[in-house]
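> forwarded from #structure-qc
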């Protein structure tokens, strides 16, 4: 059984991931955050809910492809000013960004894009903030953020995310990127083996 703290962290990361992307707060009672999902994201969400024991706080409407997160109103109202969604860096974690990428990501030639409903005037600040956390170049565009250097992004994610989450991210990689990553990981394994047995 997950501890209360670990469930709270998992809920926080999912909620903030939704707000980084296209999730919106509904101020009606009960207070909630609603996220529209593509069909191919439903399996990930179901696994995330189950793995983190969030069934009582997170619901999925299969007919509407909608994720609903129930949370305390005081926690996230500061993401809105004058009916516009803003960016709140203090809430953001490494994992919440990767969840946003998994849920709202899209492959675009040389980059990955995170689609977002954060007001456009906040996107440059948002891009700068996320870049500092992910340590890959990020640029603000119209209603989206563009992430570059996908191999480094994925290599860093391997150290922070679960197998299910890494598998979702791997779906964004091109064939050549996957081949390059396999070579990098093979070199790392050989290097670690050499250090272990004193052959390097």
């Amino acid at each position: 059984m997950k501890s209360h703290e670990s469930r709270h962290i998992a809920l926080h990361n999912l909620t903030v991931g939704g707000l980084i992307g296209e999730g919106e707060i509904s101020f009606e009672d009960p207070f909630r955050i609603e996220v529209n999902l593509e069909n191919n994201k439903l399996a990930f969400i179901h696994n995330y809910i189950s793995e983190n024991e969030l069934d009582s706080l997170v619901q999925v409407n299969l007919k509407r492809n909608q994720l609903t997160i129930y949370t305390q109103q005081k926690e996230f109202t500061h993401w809105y000013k004058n009916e516009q969604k803003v960016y709140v860096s203090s809430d953001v974690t490494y994992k919440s960004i990767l969840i946003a990428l998994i849920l709202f990501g899209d492959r675009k030639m040389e980059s990955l894009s995170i689609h977002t409903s954060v007001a456009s005037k906040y996107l440059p600040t948002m891009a700068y903030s996320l870049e500092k956390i992910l340590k890959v170049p990020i640029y603000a565009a119209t209603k989206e953020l563009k992430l570059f250097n996908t191999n480094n992004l994925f290599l860093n994610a391997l150290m922070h995310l679960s197998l299910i989450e890494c598998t979702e991210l791997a779906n964004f990689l091109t064939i050549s990127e996957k081949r390059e990553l396999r070579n990098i990981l093979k070199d790392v394994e050989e290097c670690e083996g050499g250090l272990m047995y004193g052959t390097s």
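QC bot note: The chain has eight helices and ten strands. The two ends are 43 Å apart (CA to CA).
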